[in-house]
Specification:
Length: 106
């Protein structure tokens, strides 16, 4: 079945509109990682924070100019702050490895 017929029959799912006004989800970044994840990424474009497996994390790391000696130590207590992801329609391509902000105790 061609793409046009499929879209007519099933509809389409678009990307999340990127607004770039999302607060950093400090609580989620401080929660335990999902099984198989070594670090999280947070997309400022759409606000999604997801866990990344080692292969994906290394790909993100390769986009940065720095190459740490010990990858697992550089991931501990950090997250990738990105401007665009595969879930949103952002065109702002940037990536940073940032320390996870501490939760404030009330």
């Amino acid at each position: 079945m061609d793409k046009t017929k499929k879209e007519k029959l099933l509809g389409t799912v678009g990307k999340i509109p990127a607004t770039h006004d999302h607060p950093i989800p400090i609580e989620k970044l401080n929660s335990p990682l999902p099984r198989g994840a070594v670090i999280r990424s947070f997309c400022q474009g759409c606000g999604i924070a997801i866990g990344l497996n080692l292969n994906d994390a290394i790909k993100y790391l390769s986009l940065l100019d720095e190459e740490p000696e010990n990858i697992s130590e550089s991931f501990a207590g950090h997250y990738f702050y990105i401007g665009a992801c595969s879930f949103c329609d952002s065109k702002k391509l940037y990536i940073e490895l940032k320390p996870i902000p501490k939760l404030e105790k009330n």
